[in-house]
Amino acid sequence: MARIVKTIVVTGKGTNCEMEMAHACRLAGADVVDIVNLSELLYGEKRLDDYHFLNLPGGFLDGNDLGSAKAGAHRIMHARVAGTGEPLYEQFSRFIRDGKLIFGVCNGFQLMVKLGILPGLKGEYFKQTATLTFNDSGRFEDRWVYLKINDQTPCIYTRGLRGVYLPVRHGEGKFIARNATVLRQLHRKNLVAVQYCKPDYSEPTMEYPLNPNGACDAIAGICDETGRLFGLMPHPEAYTHHTNHPRWTREDLPEEGMGLAFFRNAVHFIRNGDF
Asked: What is the mean pLDDT of residues 197-222?
């Protein structure tokens, strides 16, 4: 029997892409899609345990104080739920242990990395081993980029995809691993799921502006070893319909935008009881 897919989109002060992310989840077929503020989790009004698919959208959570998503990460790690005293991060930890899905986009990806949810090497979560920092250009980058999909990655969100064209809009999108050992593990385990690439989706590139931030090894997004936790800097939720494309009036495009496939893969995975 197919599972009813319950999705939560967590928002907070400074988040600004929650509506688009919720819309993408609905288009992908999720049965329940709730937009929930972090404060509702902290007051015990909502619980992550009641959902299958956690979405962390873009924006500037808590004003990106201390660096992108760092203040938000500290709040999740140290705040306790009113009434029970349960550390909020325990709900995130239980969500991961239960094999559920977490998807972070832009600021949501930054949050997952700063929390140590990604890359979660050897199943060690909540231990930060990478970061996202200021773009090499020294400016906020608002443009569209080509992304090459790693066909060997365990990432469930990218299944069936070869390459995608998506927008970026960020000031701190440069991915850096803590050290060479971490970077080697990311590549060896195929956890580098998407990379900035040339327009023919052939090769990853460090060339600006194709690589808009100077990310090491052109890394645009990574997953954990289960493939269930995934984050990337580009915005799939911003390209769900052909009219989202910057050249939609001049090119013959499919009605469905490339970004929707990420959400469809997640919903299909949950609905068919693959966990």
From this structure: 98
CA–CA gap between residue 102 and residue 128 (Å, rounded): 17
Name residue, tokens 């808590």. Answer: 62
Q: Which helix (H) or strand (E) holds 170?
A: strand 163-170
In the block, tokens 């052109």 appear at: 218
Q: Please report the domains of the chain, with CATH numbers, ordered by start residue.
A: 6-271 (3.40.50.880)
Tens digit of pLDDT for each residue in 115-146? Answer: 999 999 999 999 999 999 999 999 999 999 99
pLDDT in tens, 82-105: 999 999 999 999 999 999 999 999
Cβ atoms within 10 Å, residue 11: 24
Q: Residue 67 burial (CB < 10 Å; 0-12/13-18/19+)?
A: middle
Strand partners, 35: 9
The catalytic residue positions are 106, 235, 237
- With pLDDT > 70 as the criterion, what percentage of the chain qualifies? 99
What secondary structure does DSSP assign to 27-82, as a single string? HTT-SEEEEEEHHHHHTTSS-GGG-SEEEE--B-GGGGTTSTTHHHHHHHHH-B-T
Could you give the count of Cα atoms lying within 13 Å of 41 in the half-sphere of its Cβ?
A: 27
